[in-house]
């Protein structure tokens, strides 16, 4: 380790003076001088030895076979250690030395290094003068090559750019020429296409083919909507388009006229009846098929068929479903539909199906003409109105076939068989498709429909009973409570239970006293029992619906009877008395009506409670209220009569 390193590693006790700084500077200078001399010996006087010996140009020009220095000859310089030299000159333990004392030693050491370097240069086998001359020649040649390359670069850039610019100009010229040629070719192509379409139209007219003529004019108009650039500016384009439009309109007029000859209908409306006649002259001749194909190609067939289909639905099919109609095919081409105007008339389902069969059989004979693959007028009519027709038929006709009692429901399969046959018939005549929704799909909810129909029937029946005259009366009840005991097997527990029942609940509770009631009250109660008996034979959905309907009947009694018979209940005492007895009689039966219902429903799991006890007091209060009001009116009237007579 040098003295400098020792000094720097020691703790700094006091600042360095000028003499110390001078010492440090001398050490650094000496270190750099020695290291420079060592590098000079290793590299050699000509610079980088590796670069000199490996340059390919020198080998080619001079053909020099330079010898490599033996590594043993460099051992002296390589083993020269600058740090050891400095340690010999500067003693670590010596602190009071001066630069003037050390400079001669350093100079001596430098001189020694110079002498060693000179000896090395003298003893080396390399011709240093030749090496320097070769290096100078290489530098000059390199400079000349660089200048030549720069000149070539400039010449190449100038010539290449000139050729590129010339090529670009030629390309632009060719592109413009090609654009002009393409522009002209497109116009010529459009002119030729127009001429082709016109010729095809003339050929079609000569062959008396609407289809070929329509296709040619249609294609011409479609082509005229997207002409080539520049073609629309020519006079021939305007003339051709205008002429094609006129021809198109004339063709459509002729086609509509031919369609009108094949499909005609007439409606003669009167006060008592309306007569609708339909005349269809379709057949499988080439002329008819040609007209249908032409209408289809012109996109007008769907419009014509839709118009005819809507006429069938509104003027023929719907009246057959809703009115008294007679359908008669007078000839193979003429069909007459007579609609009688009757108030509140609704035809039976079998009459509707019979008339529809006659109509669709006639349509099948005339409209099932295959003018293109898997397409007939009958199929198109079915696509247009089959869904709406099916919904109307189900809603306004087939729903009414659902019975309102369990006995008729059990034989409803006969009706469904007839409806299924009619469904198959509609598929056969191609009015319905095989994958279309069946008209029997409403039977998927037969329980709900039957429940609604039964409920509606019983409500209407009950309301009709409530509107009847209250004066038609009958005797009901018992005059004395019977003392006959029940014929029950002797059982200690049973006897004990009966004794407790006799002590707590009087027998008279289960007997209604003899009195006069309206026959309507008994009829209403009979309707309730019929609903109960029918409910226990049906599914849970129907049973629940009928139970709610039964409760609704008695709630309806509270609303309808007092309102409808209001005048009689305010003026005639007999009416009030009968109405009071009716209410009491109904309330008496409702006390145990729920228990009877539950007994009949034994074994079935119900998710709703069954009971009518909550209606008992409501109906009793209804009769008591009207009786009280009438008695108060009678009392007031008697008092007024007494006052007026006194």
UniProtKB/TrEMBL annotation:
<dbReference type="Pfam" id="PF20665">
    <property type="entry name" value="Zw10_middle"/>
</dbReference>
<dbReference type="GO" id="GO:0007094">
    <property type="term" value="P:mitotic spindle assembly checkpoint signaling"/>
</dbReference>
<dbReference type="GO" id="GO:0005737">
    <property type="term" value="C:cytoplasm"/>
</dbReference>
<feature type="domain" description="Centromere/kinetochore protein zw10 middle">
    <location>
        <begin position="258"/>
        <end position="466"/>
    </location>
</feature>
<dbReference type="GO" id="GO:1990423">
    <property type="term" value="C:RZZ complex"/>
</dbReference>
<protein>
    <submittedName>
        <fullName>Uncharacterized protein</fullName>
    </submittedName>
</protein>
<dbReference type="InterPro" id="IPR048344">
    <property type="entry name" value="Zw10_middle"/>
</dbReference>
<feature type="domain" description="Centromere/kinetochore protein zw10 C-terminal">
    <location>
        <begin position="511"/>
        <end position="639"/>
    </location>
</feature>
<dbReference type="Pfam" id="PF20666">
    <property type="entry name" value="ZW10_C"/>
</dbReference>
<dbReference type="GO" id="GO:0006888">
    <property type="term" value="P:endoplasmic reticulum to Golgi vesicle-mediated transport"/>
</dbReference>
<dbReference type="InterPro" id="IPR048343">
    <property type="entry name" value="ZW10_C"/>
</dbReference>
